């Protein structure tokens, strides 16, 4: 008997597989079970269409056995089996189905990916086994054959003894080393766990002998072990069940079983789509933020199944970033099992599913917002930030999807409101959607800048998250209404038009303001009489696109480029302090310079901006007190 060599490509992939330090080795079992299930499918189909074959439902199963002593893990199926030629054909060439495009010049690293994401069928067994022995008896054949390989060297085929139809694959599990544990693949609980995780929904029973202990009769301390056959998988996937027959609890169990999160889902979405593309999906909106959600470590994605077999643990392409909090799975018969990740990314069907899912999530969220405000607010507290990032990223391309899901705290309602609610309430003479930014709601409430807009009776949205202003600057407008910061120079409020009296007063004060401007140099671009201030003596406002809040956010970033907002120092000419300024202009220029510095620093403090020279500021305060 001569040893036959694998085809060149197979040899390369085998090398890769054997030498990979691969963390998701466990998927080998999924691959073998899925092959077994396919083989039973084929026989099942034949039996249904061929009268000469008897059909006994109970005779279709997959059996997993562990022989610790000999380090053997065996997968037996009662499927259609393989002839000698088929053994040669199917197991001598890797990825015969051709769906795996394996580039010759692939780095080892890429190899990990291919294996990791999809497995490569039968050969993945070499990740955990030194040798594989396949014994198979095909439908309609008298003889059974044995195929054996110890890896890249090649394989042998010879006649064998097997009475029943089907295939048995025995894996000689590798010996554990100091770094690597292979013994686990000989542990009953571990194998059960892997089956539960990946193959729970295979529609044939996956049986295993489980060891049970029982008190020996008449004894109080002596146990006897005995084996009992048990079906490990539940066989019917939840997503194939009729949603009317499922309870919230069923979904919650599924959520924890799948390790989607430690919380309870806020909402589940169960989809059974039959159309241009058919798929089932169960999606969850979590209740709590995963601890790593707003970090780089968090990986988005949905589990992807092809006809009940999991092919990918986290398929990122199924979810847009702004819905990255969604957990769940998609199962489609229209996707091939052995599809590679590169192909998947460009897969038209996958794109269709992704688009569909995106819309469903959006609609679901809108539904919650409408039907259960409290629940939605809970959701928004946790993930609203991500939605705002979604608006900001991709240059606002997702505005239409997301804008109606946003909420901001309202100065009038004292709670979160949507943009559409805001716009609906706008009086006719109000041109803009006003917002005020700050670290917290109480702080914004005290901010001098909101005085004019508040007095006018207009509602103000409070922006307390650093992303807020960036998001609306990307949105530009909502229902044709522009956003306007209450700190902006031009507020579009009637009082903006200067009365004659004001004009003349401003002219009177030009000497004072010029002096102050001179003193502050390029710290501010202008000093002027304020129209917005009612009670406070000073505030800062800004000109241009870049607001003071944005400056704060940008300067907190590690690569900050010292970008400054264009600031205007506004002085309340009706305030008592103003008289002191006028006085000082006449009598004591040095004092005026001192006052100017103090007022400017006060304005910075109110804004939550750092004072440039705190020591000087403190010294100047002392000077005045003396
Ligand atoms: P794939 O399943 O993607 O085709 P595999 O390498 O896993 O790739 O298997 C190659 C082929 O070997 C299968 O397509 C199938 O025809 C055959 N095969 C594998 N396992 C079995 C089995 N348990 N029973 C019958 N045929 C099998």
Detail the topology: elements first, then pairings.
Elements: H1 8-19, H2 27-49, E1 62-67, E2 72-77, H3 84-92, H4 108-118, E3 129-137, E4 144-149, E5 155-160, E6 166-173, H5 188-199, E7 206-215, E8 223-231, H6 248-257, E9 265-273, E10 279-286, E11 302-306, E12 309-315, E13 327-332, H7 341-345, H8 348-371, H9 373-392, H10 399-402, E14 408-410, E15 416-417, H11 419-425, E16 433-437, H12 441-445, H13 451-455, E17 460-463, H14 467-475, E18 477-478, E19 481-485, H15 500-520, E20 526-529, E21 538-543, H16 548-555, E22 566-571, H17 576-587, H18 589-607, H19 614-625
Helix pairs in contact: 2-5, 8-9, 9-14, 15-18, 17-18
Q: Tell the overall outline.
A: elongated
The overall strand count is: 22
Percentage of residues in helical conformation: 25-40%
The CATH architecture of the largest domain can be given as 2-Layer Sandwich
CATH class of the largest domain: Alpha Beta
Span between termini:
108 Å
How many helices? The count is 19
Question: What is the domain tally?
Answer: 4
Major sheet: 8 strands, mixed
CATH topology of the largest domain: Heat Shock Protein 90
Strand arrangement, largest sheet? 5-4-3-6-2-1-7-8
Q: Low-confidence stretches at least 5 residues in length (pLDDT < 50)?
A: 95-119
What Rg is obtained from the alpha carbons, in whole angstroms?
35 Å
- Please report which band the strand proportion falls in: under 5%, 5-15%, 15-25%, 25-35%, 35-45% or over 45%: 15-25%
CATH homologous superfamily label of the largest domain: Histidine kinase-like ATPase, C-terminal domain
């Amino acid at each position: 008997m001569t040893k036959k060599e694998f085809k060149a490509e197979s040899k390369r992939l085998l090398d890769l597989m054997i030498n990979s330090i691969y963390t998701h080795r466990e998927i080998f079992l999924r691959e073998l079970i899925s092959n077994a299930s396919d083989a039973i499918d084929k026989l099942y189909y034949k039996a249904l269409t061929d009268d000469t074959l008897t059909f006994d439902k109970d005779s279709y199963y997959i059996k997993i056995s562990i022989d610790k002593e000999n380090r053997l893990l065996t997968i037996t199926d009662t499927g259609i089996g393989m002839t000698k030629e088929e053994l040669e054909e199917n197991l001598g060439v890797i990825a015969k189905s051709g769906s795996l495009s394996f580039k010759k010049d692939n780095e080892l690293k890429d190899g990990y990916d291919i294996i990791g994401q999809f497995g490569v069928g039968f050969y993945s067994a070499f990740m955990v086994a030194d040798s594989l022995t396949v014994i198979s008896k095909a439908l309609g054949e008298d003889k059974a054959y044995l195929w054996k390989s110890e890896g890249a060297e090649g394989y042998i085929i010879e006649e064998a003894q097997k009475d029943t139809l089907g295939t048995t694959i025995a894996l000689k599990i590798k010996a554990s080393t100091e770094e690597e544990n292979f013994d686990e693949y000989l542990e009953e609980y571990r194998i059960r766990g892997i089956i539960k995780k990946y193959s729970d929904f295979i529609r044939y029973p996956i049986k295993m002998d489980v060891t049970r202990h029982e008190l020996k009769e008449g004894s109080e301390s002596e146990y006897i072990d005995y084996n009992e056959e048990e079906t490990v998988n539940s066989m019917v996937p939840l997503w194939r069940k009729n949603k009317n027959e499922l309870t919230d609890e069923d979904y919650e169990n599924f959520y924890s079983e799948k390790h989607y999160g430690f919380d309870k889902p806020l909402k589940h979405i169960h989809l059974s789509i039959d159309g241009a593309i058919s798929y089932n999906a169960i999606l969850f909106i979590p209740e709590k933020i995963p601890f790593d959600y707003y970090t780089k470590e968090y990986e988005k994605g949905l589990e992807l199944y092809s006809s009940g077999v999991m092919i990918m643990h986290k398929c990122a392409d199924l979810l847009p970033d702004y819905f990255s909090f969604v957990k769940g799975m998609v199962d489609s018969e229209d996707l091939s099992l052995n599809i590679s990740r590169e192909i998947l990314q460009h897969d038209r069907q996958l794109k269709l599913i992704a688009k569909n899912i995106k819309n469903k999530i959006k609609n679901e969220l809108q539904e919650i917002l409408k039907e259960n405000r409290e629940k939605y607010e809970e959701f928004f507290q946790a993930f609203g930030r991500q939605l705002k990032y979604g608006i900001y990223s991709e240059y606002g391309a997702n505005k239409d999807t997301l804008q109606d899901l946003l909420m901001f705290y309202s100065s009038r309602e004292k709670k979160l409101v949507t943009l559409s609610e805001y716009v609906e309430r706008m009086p006719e003479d109000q041109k803009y959607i006003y917002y005020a930014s700050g670290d917290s709601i109480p702080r914004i409430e005290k901010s001098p800048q909101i005085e004019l807009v508040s007095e006018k009776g207009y509602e103000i949205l409070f922006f307390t998250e650093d992303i807020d202003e960036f998001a609306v600057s990307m949105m530009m407008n909502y229902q044709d209404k522009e956003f306007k910061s209450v700190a902006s120079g031009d507020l579009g409020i009637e009082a903006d038009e200067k009365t004659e009296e004001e004009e003349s007063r401003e002219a009177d004060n030009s000497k004072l303001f010029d002096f102050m401007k001179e003193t502050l140099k390029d710290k501010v671009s202008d000093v002027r009489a304020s129209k917005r201030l009612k009670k406070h003596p000073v505030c800062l406002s800004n000109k241009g696109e870049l607001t003071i809040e944005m400056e704060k956010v940008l300067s907190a970033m590690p690569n900050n480029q010292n970008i400054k907002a264009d600031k205007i120092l506004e002085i309340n000419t009706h305030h008592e302090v103003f008289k002191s300024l006028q006085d000082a202009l006449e009598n004591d220029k040095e004092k005026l310079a001192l006052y100017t510095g103090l007022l400017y620093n006060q304005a910075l403090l109110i804004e939550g901006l750092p004072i440039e020279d705190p020591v000087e500021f403190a010294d100047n305060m002392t000077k005045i007190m003396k």
